[in-house]
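Hello again,

I reread your note about wanting to compare the complex against the isolated chains. To keep things tidy I'm splitting this into two emails, and this first one only covers the full assembly. Below are the input lines as submitted, including protein chains and any nucleic acid or small-molecule components. They are followed by the predicted structure of everything together. The single-chain runs will come separately.
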Amino acid sequence: MDSSISALIQRAADDIKNSNYAIALTGAGFSTESGIRDFRGPDGLWTKHPELEQKAYEDYAAFESNAKTWWQSRVETPDILADELGKASPNPGHIALRDLEELKKLKCVITQNIDNLHQAAGSKTVIDFHGNISRLRCLSCNRRYPTEEFDIRRLYETNQLPPRCVSCGDPIKPDVVYFGEPIPSDVATRSEQEALNCDLMMVCGTSAVVYPFANLPVIASGRHRTSLTSIFEFGLSRSSQPTIIIEINAEPTPLTEGGISDYLIQGKTGEILPRIVSALRKMM
Ligand code: NAD
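Full-complex prediction:
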């Protein structure tokens, strides 16, 4: 690893040590080292199968217009991403964030990932911004259910799809948030509050183009994303100390180019984060 990356790793460890309320945001790139493809990276699911991107954009409208046929088609169609998710286990990046929480230097993880790998690694405070594959959710009342509470195959074979909410009787869908679907209000409120509370945010393995998730670093930084040269402050009432935004990603993103992040550590999260934790342990 070259000396400039090593210097940035040390800088991140110093910043985390000096922080009072650090949080981490993670995206699909975080789980590529667990064998789950991201969408838009060079080997991404959509890069290789563009037809799946189109289907993803239509999924929510299809569920809303007819939940029964949507569930039937889900049972009948193989799901490449679900297959990869089923086989995956946490990688060293997940373990490093768990370690930071145990060291009391990380308050929470807000993840775009639906794969449940932060929880599998042992992280305790995880906000699943785009839902979690291990749950189902009622769109009307937000009640969540463990997936195994419903025998979808049996409901399919007995013509009883869609599964219905025990509380309000409305059709339920996977907890995963689809394109065009609003972020559940409880999750959106909690995430925005964490972005306002933090004094350090690590943004890891995300292309930062999916909204409103990509807005969380903008909220935390207190800066508008305007142009490369024009950055100005929000009028939010928050501490005078600016929040430090650290990106750890395989490539620069709009946060890098728009001046929202303070610095980018370019590389794999599964390699960089364990080195940050190790540098931090030496200082504690
Ligand atoms: P994205 O595919 O748009 O971007 C991934 C980014 O991570 C890219 O910039 C890529 O270069 C980078 N990257 C890839 N491997 C990396 C690594 N090992 N270390 C560091 N960086 C790496 O992903 P996104 O921004 O999260 O948006 C995609 C959407 O798809 C999200 O909403 C997410 O919910 C969903 N998704 C989730 C999973 C999952 O749960 N694991 C997988 C695919 C997609």
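For quick reference: Residues 225-238 have pLDDT under 50 and may be disordered.

B.
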